Amino acid sequence: MAACYAISAIDRINISAARIAGMNEELAFNIGDRYSIALLVFFITYFIFEIPSNMVLRKAGAANWLSFLCLSWGLVTLGAGFAKKWTDIVVCRLLLGLLEAGFFPGCVYLISCWYTRYEVQKRLATFYGINILANGFGSILAYGIMQLNGKAGYLGWRWIFIINGLMTVVLASLGRILIVDFPDKVYQSRRPFLKPHEVKAIRDKLDRDRADAEYDEMNLKKFIRLCAKWELWVFAMHFFAVTTIVYALAFFIPIILQGFGYTTGMVFLMSAPPAVAAVPWVLFVSWAADKSKMRAPFIIMQAVLGITGLMIVAYSAKNGARYFGIFVGLAGANANIPCVLAWQANNIRGQSSRMVASGLQIAFGAIGGIYGSTTFMEREAPLYRTGLWAVSGCQFYLITATCCMTLHYWRRNKKADRGEVIIEEMEGFRYTY
Fold this sequence. Notes:
Elements: H1 2-26, H2 34-48, H3 50-60, H4 62-80, H5 86-100, H6 103-112, H7 120-146, H8 156-178, H9 196-210, H10 220-227, H11 230-259, H12 264-292, H13 296-315, H14 319-346, H15 351-374, H16 385-417
Helix pairs in contact: 1-4, 1-7, 1-8, 1-11, 2-5, 2-15, 3-4, 3-6, 3-15, 4-5, 4-6, 4-8, 6-15, 7-12, 7-14, 11-12, 11-14, 11-15, 11-16, 12-14, 13-14, 13-16
């Protein structure tokens, strides 16, 4: 799943590499806001289809649905390599958003159903860390593919889409074989990797932790009740705030580095180290968060790191210092993804509730992508100070909202300790903060 998600992220952001590799000139993306439009439209369909896809996931089965999505967006990416005009890329981005929409929330939902509350962040960090690592080397891969410039009459940017698309199709085939289903369905599959008594041991552990190993059917009344829970919307806005900085850095790091005056080759090579260096930090933070059974302090710490990194990029006079700022900002931004996802997963009970909650939360990541891709204005290149401040503002919001949620959960836990309330309809359950 991590490999498939990693290739999805590469397929999503390789437009920035393609732009540098000749797409800008051949399809006239340097006119007006065409590039920002191409970034923006992806997130429209990505937002709409998150929750519906999670509902299909339970019915169709994890391997069937997730591998189908991966195969489909791989074919779309392949098709983008044959675009004739800039609007063709826009249509491909719309389809890419539609097809990638369900993969990440589906994986988060599936992982959260296999592990207890204080096991889950390490697993989410590993899943997401492989994606960060692949993205780091994705820039080097893109530079290598660019050397095919002129082969078969295609410019380098076309080969980026074609080869990435073919890689995605291969991974989708492996996903169909290797992705496993939910704990309550896995022993029913044609290739069960667990025996019934092993599945029972896992389900017993989940029931001791939060009493929701058994799937509870979704219905309209329950869906409306879940959508009325204000906490879910706060967590959705948490994810929005985190993804603004992640997407902004992913889309604009190559362009910012190009503004330093480096050659195209150096830009691609220098895009990799900040992403690779972030991975051990993401894994360490997630291990520490699970070990301490806390989330909020780590979220605040990563937000501060993100702001620090962005301000160094915005205002440092030396390229070396600004490059260091990218390291700091990217580490803080990426480490907060599993933190925010795990915090919601810790405070939600019921598989159907988690299905809606994860879909809603990650859908707001699409809005973060829209925000992050439109606040960086072409006329401000290569400093993009307005965009950097706009993204920093979201991190200040994240800190404030996290403090408020911590206070709310602390009060609820105190009331439960006094016997005044029962949290999440389970005796002994306490919120994580």
